[in-house]
Amino acid sequence: MKRRDFLILAATAVAWPRAAHSQQKAMSVIGFLGLAPASAWNDQVEALRAGLRDFGDVEGDNIHIEFRWAASTDQLSEFAAELVRMNVDVIIAPASTEVEPARQATKTIPIVFTQHADPVGLRHVVSLSHPGGNITGVSMVLTEVSAKALEILKDALPDARRIGVLWNPTTPSHTQVVEAIRVAAKSLGVQVLMTPIESVTDFEAVFATLRREQVDGFLVPSSPLTNAERVSLADLALRYRLPGIYVNKENAEAGGLMSYGADFNYMYRHAALYVHKILKGEKPGDLPVEQASKYQLVINLKTAKALGLKVPPLLLTQADEVIE
Questions:
Q1: How far is CA 94 from CA 17, 30, 127, 226, in A?
Q2: Does one domain contain both 256 and 186?
Q3: Is the same domain home to 105 and 174?
Q4: For 87-101, what is each residue's pLDDT tens digit?
Q5: Range of 240's domain?
Q6: Residue bearing the bigger pLDDT, 290 or 7
Q7: Are residues 314 and 182 in the same domain?
Q8: Same domain for 154 and 239?
Q9: % of residues, the chain, pLDDT over 90
Q10: What CATH number does residue 246 fall under?
Q11: Is residue 7 part of a domain?
């Protein structure tokens, strides 16, 4: 064998294993479309990362996550289009607020939601068992949960006659949620005052309205805005001395009076299974949507004392967690 031919063969032999190793370590890119501030979602993002690690998907090893945190809902479409231009392998769009702009941006890149309120009602999937299309994930039944939360608030405030509802017109699922709350209010014999909030700048005026209209308490259906700005909401509720119930446990942990809803951390961690399966080649339309089956009642007794409110003993016994 000529020396030149030997050197070429040797170089090729060395290159083959390197090429194979490089192919095995090919990095999958996951886009994450969220609503700022990012710091408000640390626990959920870490739950997602933990879930991905459970399936061997590790950042910096075989996956990379491109985060896009929109300062407002208006910016979500821009960031969704940016992730599509990057040709990411999958987009995580947590709730209906993020799913809709992602859906409008692509019909081919898989989209996984982590806390969708009503994917069938909003036509983001064809059905829970057979989503079809490019969207699937983990869901919670926000309409029923919000109605139940109103009932729990009435149990805590038996003499209440008027309840404020802080709903968000930029959250697609809230149209159905508002209707469900109206129906529940009628059966409970209470009036509801619908007060829309679209940004943090609305908070102060909304609480001033609740106080002026002499509501007995308020309900906050889950939305990316109210989940992220939980400390601001809790502080205002204490300042205006108004008892409230939320649909996210972290709102109660931040100082809200009560919460009733699904475990967000569980949903984010479980959504990692969908991402993993999609990266392995499964189609999102073939992966059934999972609905959260466990809902927790959390009561913050420290806040109750600050409000001068005595929580009925029966309600305390029903709580999954009491913060003292």
A1: 40, 13, 18, 14
A2: yes
A3: no
A4: 999 999 999 999 999
A5: 142-262+296-323
A6: 290
A7: yes
A8: yes
A9: 91
A10: 3.40.50.2300
A11: no
- Asked whether residue 131 falls in the same domain as residue 195, the answer is no
pLDDT tier for residue 249 given thresholds of 50, 70 and 90: very high
For the segment 80-86, the average pLDDT, to the nearest whole number, is: 98
* C-alpha span between 113 and 92 (Å, rounded): 6
Q: How far is CA 307 from CA 162, 210, 213, 240, 254, in A?
A: 18, 16, 19, 10, 15
| 279 assigned to some structural domain | yes
Q: What is the pLDDT of residues 265-284, one digit of tens each?
A: 999 999 999 999 999 999 99
The verdict on 112 and 257 lying in the same domain is no
Same domain, 205 and 286: no
- Per-residue pLDDT of 108-128, as tens digits, reads 999 999 999 999 999 999 999
Sign of the CA dihedral 38, 41, 42, 46?
A: negative
pTM for the model stands at 0.86
On the CB side of 99, CA atoms within 13 Å amount to 28
On whether both 290 and 319 belong to a single domain, the answer is no
Residue 9: inside a domain: no
What is the total count of domains within the chain? 2
The neighbour count for residue 97, using CB atoms within 10 Å, is 25
